[in-house]
Each structure stands twice: as structure tokens, then as C-alpha cells.
Dynamin N-terminal domain-containing protein (Clostridium diolis), 837 residues
Amino acid sequence: MRKDNYILNIIDEIRGVLSKNNYRENRYNKDIAWFEERKSIYDDNIIRIAIMGITSSGKSTLVNALLGEKILPMAIRPSSSIIITASKGLKRQAVIYFKDSGPKILETENLNEDAIAEYADESRNPGNTLNVTQIDIKTPYFMLDEKIHIIDSPGLDAWNLENHEKLTLEILLPTIDICIFVTTVKANSDATNAEKIKIVSEKDKQIILVQNMIDSIEEKIGRNGIVEEDKVTILKKYKKRAERLLMEITDDKEISEVIQISALNGLLGIVDKDKERYDNSNFEMFINAIENCAENTIPKLNGRRAESLIEKINSIISTDQEIIKGNNLGEIEDLIKVSNKELDNLANKFETAQNEIAEKIKEIENITSNIIKEISSVSSENIEDYLDIVDRINNKNLYIESDILSTVKRCEKDKRRIYDSLNLDIRSSYVLPSIESKNIEIKHKYEERTVLFKKEGVLNKGKRLLSNIFDKDWGYKEVGYDERIIDKDETIKRAQKICSENKNKYISILKEWSNQYTKAIDTFYEEVSRRTEEFEEKKEQNIELYDIGEVTKDLIGIKDKLSNLRVDVKNEVAITSDNYEKNISYSISRLHYNFYMLSNKILEKNYLLVGKYINKKCEEKSNSMGLKLFWTWDIDSCRDFISRMYGIDLDLEECELIKREGLYSFEDIAIIYESGKGTLKFYEKLKQIKDMTYSMFIIFNGIQIGNSKKQILESRNLNYFFKENSNLSVNLVIDSCREFINANNIEELLIEVKNLKDKVISRFSSIRPEYILINSKNPIYNMALIESQEIHEFLISDYKVIKEKLIENPLSRGVEEQETIEKILSYFLNTSKEEGV
């Protein structure tokens, strides 16, 4: 990255004026020190770039690719409130900073993915119990210029972390220069992304929108193996969708650019020295975009620096003029910009804010006692009666969090104003307080119950007549069963524990944030004191009018140069054209074409068999010929799944109809599109089909698991549909699984989906959970999932038998298929072991 010495030369010129002779050097010694300090900061010329975006968008993989090796854990669980920075250094080194102890340094063989995971991975450091505040990683293999520092922020859509993301945006954004917003190519959460990008844009930050995981795109194949859309066409479609989103959100479309990459292939291409893989990842294009963007940011920074220097020059000139006029200190508060009285007022407002937050925290104690009273007073064993109580309690917690956040935001706004008034750089302050709370959930238990069934035969019929007279159970047989009921004691105990944890968390937040804010206030007082002291020193010195006049004259000339410095920045990212811009046709032999068609026929046939099997099992459990209901947030994914499982193809007109009306039914199929407009007609149709018997498929985005949890668990339509409806067999269908197959971490995805399944069962107790399925091109993965889920206690012998059977199938001849099958089976084997412990 080029080094712009213009501002540095100006500072040298100013220093020359202020130190021309002993008198000046004596008089302006503190001013000279100020300019020297600024020169040191500007000489570093660090460009701070924050990587933000949805959870599981591949941010950690992206940072690893920039680091040139796999150092960060590439998990799909968010890493709490820990900020990670990455930059170029002379040696490989990571410094772990803690809130309550000194830093720890990892180097050489001690710096690896496993070591960093101890501190940065939520599964290893749950709730950040180690109190890690930041991790700084430096390596000579860093792909960017040494003047560019990457800041990896926590994910912005993790379920139940909404307030944390608000603090991220509020506190972190003012301190950075450029925002790289990472999403996935197939992201269907436009509204979620739009909300975040709008906040970034409003804070006047340049945006590079990265659509990651282009390696997960597969061509869309219709009936008879015909390719309806190839990968290039699909990528163009997704890119145009993102570009439209940016144009709608940002005021100036030139400040943003959309880049499509595969961070995984970029990383593997670097690590394995696989040039072809690296080139196909578009990662070089991404690096060029960052460096060009950083180059364009330098004039912007110089413009702000010029304003800062001008303000300092004005302060020097004004101070001299006021002293020559003989004004007293009390009359020159304008020179200092901020008075002690104003700082006292800021400190008092901060103290009031602390008290407000403390009062809000006390409300948690009242909530705890209310929970216990309400739950204890309910005699019903119906889960709905308890869910209403829990929802009210959780909502109260959200209100408390919202109030705390509003108070923090108000104080942060006041703090930033003082930073500006005192001509101080806020960019060095970006520690984030963590604000993660837990929701209360209903706990269940099973009690042994009995039910009477009629015995067959005429004799037993007579006994039943007598049993009514003598109040006996003659003519019946007693059958035992386990009934799932509310565990009231455990629910109360759990509520107490969570409320106590939330309270302690808020107290920790208050302490952490208070320490940061107090340091800022101390800095302000020191700056005001320094300026006052400087004024007093100058006032006590002899007045050499000629020298002061010459200084003023020379400084005004320099100020004019700075004023003429125009920020000529074309807020745009210079990007080379996409390497997949042109469609390329290849000629293949008739033999290869026939083989291709045969392969697709085999896939279609086997998928239809899977669909028939699922339907049969669901019908057996419901004892009726049920309908098939598909609940989705992405029409294209739903369309693919229906085509694969049941051989029914929706045309474009039908897809547009579903998008408009939200609900579409034909024959034994019903499709509900959650992202539809939700018209009155939609709710009337929903009411009509609500109580029918269904085999239901909820199709959700696996890579955006945080957002998917939120969509499913907070959906009013689903809540209405599930309520008091015991005719539902529910299957969870994971879309966007290709990303996990490519990254060889399908087990982690299944762990998160199992967690989602448990929450769905807890939230909607009336439904019958069936299978976890995958919306993949190859049906062999669903065969593995079905086989595994039908075994109550999965043993090593089951693992071997199923693996042998599946590997023999022609659909699993490839290395990738066999590895993925093994990962699926390993997950169920490990899960069974854990449940057996």
C-alpha cells in the first residue's frame, strides 16, 4: 500500500516554524510534542477493516485465508464477545488479552487452531468464562499489506444475541475505516442483512459485500437430467440480487461492491499450494478489492487529519491572541473547547446511567420471584399454560436488555461528542462489552400411566356391562405407558438459575463498561488539564510580539495549504471482472452424455424411493392418508426438495404465485412460504388447512443456523399452526448443506440441528418429531440419516452394518460421499454414547 507523505511533510513544516529558535521551542514545547505524537500515529497509517456478517457465513475461514494458514477455529457457533485482529508481523505470534489478568503469548508450535480454540471457540470457552477481551494474531504469511489490520467481530445474527449485535454496531463501527460484510451466496435473509448494512452505511463506512461459499453452488437440474441453470447463471442471479439490495440501502451505490468468493478454496489453495483451486476461489480478486479500497481510504483519512491539524493551528493562534489581549483563563474556555464543568456534567450523567442500569438489574430479582409464584400456582399439566408465563417473563427480560442498551448508546453518543470536541482519536477504543442473556424454557418429565383397552369376546362384553354397575374394570386390559408432563420443580429451579446467571452477567457488563467509560472521562480531564496548564505556561512567559506574529503568519500559510487539501476520493472499489462472466460450452461424446443422463436417472429414482418411504412411515404413525406440507423461507430450495422427493415440478408461475400469496396447495401438497406478504387471504387459507393430518417438512438454511433458529422458534404462523394440533409429523430439512460437506464438518451441522430440534420439541410439545433430512443432490445422505435415526440405541455394530450397506450402494462410490457417510454415522454413534452416559 502506498505511503502518502504529504501530511507528514506538513507536520515537519509546522515543527520547523514552532522550533525555529530557542524562544519558540520553549514557548511551544507542548504543541511540538502534540505534533510529534500525531506524526507517529499518521506514519503508521494503519487502515482498520472490520469483518462483519451473519453467523456461519465463513468469517473465520476468510480470516484464516488472509492469515495464509488455518489458525482460527472454523466452527459454526459464535465466539461470544471476543474480538480477533489479524495483521502482518515479523513472526507468528498471538497475544491473548484478559479482562482480569496479564496477556498470554502463543508462538511457534504453540500457535495453532486448537490453542486458539481454547479461548475463542464458544464450545471450549462457553460464555467466555475465561474473560478474554481480545486476541491479536500476527504472521509473516498475512496476505495483505502490513498497514492493513483486520478486525474479526462476533457474528451478527446468532440466535438470542440480538442485543450483543447492537452493541457491536454501536461501539465498534465508529472506530473502523472499512467494513467487509460477509454473507453466503445463497443467503435468504435479505431483511436481516439490509438492516445491518444500512447501519454501516449510515455511519459513512465504505462497504465490501462478500458473498462467500461459491463452491457450494450446484447447477439446477430439471426432469430428464436437463440443466435449467448452470453455476455461472445462478451466481450472476445471486450477485444481481445483492447489488439491488445495496442500491436500495446505500445513498451512493458507488461506495459498495459485491464480490463472490470461496474462502474455503482460497485457504486450501494457499495451504496445499494448489494454484488452480486458489484461482477458482476468486480470492485474489478479493485481496485486490481490499487493497484498492484501502488506497481510496487514505485521502479520506488525510482529509480528517488535515481538519485535526487545522483545529490545532487555530488553537495555537487563538491562545496567543487571547494572551496578548490580556484575557483571563475563565474567558478562554472556547480555546479549550470543553470545560471542566462540561466534563463534570458528563460524569454526573454517567453516574445516573449506572444507577439506571443497576435499577434495571434489580428488576431481574423481582422477575425471579414472579416466575416462581406463577409457575407454582398453575395446576394444569398443559404446556400452553406454562408457555404463556415463560413468554411473558422472557419478554420482560428483553425489555430490560433494551433499556440497558438505550442507556449505553446515550452515554456512548455523549462520549463521542467529547472525543470530537477535544480533537482526540476515537479509533483506538473498541473493546466490546458482552451482553448475552439466556431464555427460560419449560422442563419436562415422564410419569408412568395406564390406559384400559377392551378385551375381545362375548364374555368380556358381558363383564364390561357388570363393571359399570360395580365400578370395576372387568372386561378390560390395563396397558402401561409413559406420559410426558411438565416438571414444575425442575422448571422453577431452572428459572432461578437462569435469572441468577443473567443478573450476574449484567453486573459484570456494568463493571466492564464502567471501567472503559471511566478511563475515557479520565482522558478528557487530563486533556483539559493539559490545555489549561499549557495556557498558563504561555501566559507566564515573555511576549515576543515579532516572533509570535511570525509564527501566526507562517501557521496561517500552512493552514491555507491544509484547507486546500481536497478529499478527492471516488468511493468505489476497483474490481477486475468476474472470472466466470462468460458461459463456456464444451463438446462431449454421446457416450459421456448418455452416462450423464443415466446418472441423473439413478439419482431421481432413488430419491423418489426415499420420498415414498418417508410418506409411508408418517402415514403408519398417524393411521391416515395425510397431506404433505412444506414450510419454507426459500422457494427455490423448497422447489428442489419437492422435485427430488416426490417428482413434482413447480413452474415459474407457480413459484411467483407462492411468493405473492404465501400459501399454495394442490392435490395432496401444501406449501407455506414464510417470507410471503401475509395477506388476509393467506390467514384464511391457513385456518382452513390447520387441523388436517400432515407429514410436514420445515426447510431451513443450515449455514445460517442462528437465523434459522430465530425464524422457526419465533414464527407466529408456526406457533399458530402447531398450537393444539396433534396431527403433525414434523421433519426438519437442512438446506445449504453443501458448504458443510465441502468443509468436511457435517457432524457440527448435525449437532446444531439436533439442538434446534430439541428447542422445537420444547416449544411445541404437541407435534411428533420425525426425521432430520438433508436437501442434497445425492439421496445417499438421507438414506444414511434415516437408517441412523430409526435405531434407538446406536451401537458400533450398527455403525459397521449400515456403513457396509451404504458404501456398497453405487450412489456412494466417490471419496466425498464415503467420507460424508462416515461423518453422519459417527455423529449418531457419538450421540448415542453421550446419551448412554
About this structure: The longest strand covers residues 444-454. Confidence is low (pLDDT under 50) at residues 156-161, 431-438, 566-578, 580-584. The chain has four domains: 47-53+163-305+542-585, 331-443+487-541, 444-486, 590-777. DSSP finds 28 helices and 19 strands in the chain.
